[in-house]
TrEMBL record:
Residues 128-259 form the Peptidase S54 rhomboid domain. This is Rhomboid family intramembrane serine protease. InterPro entries: Peptidase_S54_rhomboid_dom, Rhomboid-like_sf, Rhomboid_protease_S54. GO terms for molecular function: peptidase activity. Pfam families: Rhomboid. It is found in: Membrane. GO terms for biological process: proteolysis. It is a multi-pass membrane protein. The keyword Protease applies. It comes from Streptomyces daqingensis. The chain crosses the membrane at residues 81-101, 144-164, 171-187, 193-212, 219-236, 242-259, 271-290. Keywords: Hydrolase, Membrane, Protease, Transmembrane, Transmembrane helix. The keyword Disulfide bond does not apply. Gene3D superfamilies: Rhomboid-like.
Length: 294
């Protein structure tokens, strides 16, 4: 019996955050550290205490500034800043919709081609209003829709923002939103309206799964949650499966490029992946526009 107990895998917790499981340790002191505490070194990661005391000057000996697992600069101050800004933009538009009504919705929602509304025609993406691909991803009408998406953003956003850094997290969110909108535009009826942050949220789901796999965390909770949301995607009437799948695929691809490339090629791979995804999105929109305007 004793031999069996010794063979079981040992669960370790961050020495600064005892409630967080982790499979990564500081390369200098070997204490377990979570994504919020990881600072990139020449080989592996160091904890904040070793970085502060490593050179006697308050800086890591191998880098001028502490870095996240994705190579981003560890932000000073509020590590939820970008998440809060995104929440604020979504909330501001939601309040605007409640005050202004359908006119604001029709000016920002995703349409393929021009449609008629009581106060005149509304032009869509095919007529050159490409901004709708992004504005529609910040737009909500129903309270439950807004609440569910913002709950997902608040749950998934801060850990990803801390692990990737502000700039990389912003890119992940916006590209996931555009990916969801592009796939919706590509496959939906040209007169079908689409709105909501669901594409971006599914991108965060995908990125979280990739990050947890990279950190050797237990992936079952996030996979179960993602699976439940995918079931609702295809069985609940009125949900745009294109937005969910488009955002999910983009989020997975960007996250792989963020956390898996070799350290010496990390920045190049990340920029190339983001640029490649953006070009694919543009290509999909161009193809669909040519189909609708031919």
């Amino acid at each position: 019996m004793e031999g069996q107990r010794q063979s079981e895998p040992q669960v370790t917790y961050c020495y600064r955050h005892p409630d967080r499981e982790t499979g990564i340790s500081c390369v200098r002191c070997e204490r377990p550290i979570c994504p919020d505490c990881m600072i990139t070194a020449s080989v592996g990661f160091q904890c904040p205490d070793c970085v502060k005391g490593g050179s006697g000057t308050g800086h890591a000996p191998s880098a001028s500034r502490p870095r996240t697992i994705a190579g981003g600069v560890i932000a000073a101050g509020d590590r939820r800043l970008v998440t809060k800004i995104l929440l604020g933009v979504n909330a501001a538009l939601f309040v605007g919709v409640m005050i202004v009504g359908e006119r604001l919705v029709s000016s920002l929602v995703l349409f393929g081609q021009a449609i008629a509304v009581p106060y005149g025609p509304v032009e869509g993406v095919a007529e050159g209003q490409w901004y709708r691909l992004l504005t529609s991803a910040f737009l909500h009408q129903e309270t439950w829709h807004f609440a569910m998406n913002m709950l997902g953003l608040w749950f998934l956003g801060p850990p990803l923002e801390a692990a990737l850094g502000r700039l990389r997290f912003s890119g992940l969110y916006l590209l996931s939103a555009l990916g969801g909108s592009a796939l919706t535009y590509l496959f939906s009826s040209p007169g079908q309206a689409s709105l909501g942050a669901s594409g971006a949220i599914f991108g965060l789901f995908g990125a979280t799964a990739i990050l947890m796999r990279r950190m050797k965390y237990d992936m079952r909770p996030i996979l179960i949650l993602l699976g439940i949301n995918l079931v609702f995607t295809f069985v609940w009437e009125g949900i745009s499966w294109q937005a969910h799948i488009g955002g999910l695929v983009v989020g997975v691809l960007i996250a792989i490029a963020m956390v898996h490339p070799p350290r010496d090629k990390r920045t190049v791979v990340q920029y190339a992946a983001c640029a490649g995804v953006l070009l694919l999105i543009i290509a999909a929109v161009v193809v669909r526009t040519l189909q609708l305007t031919a």
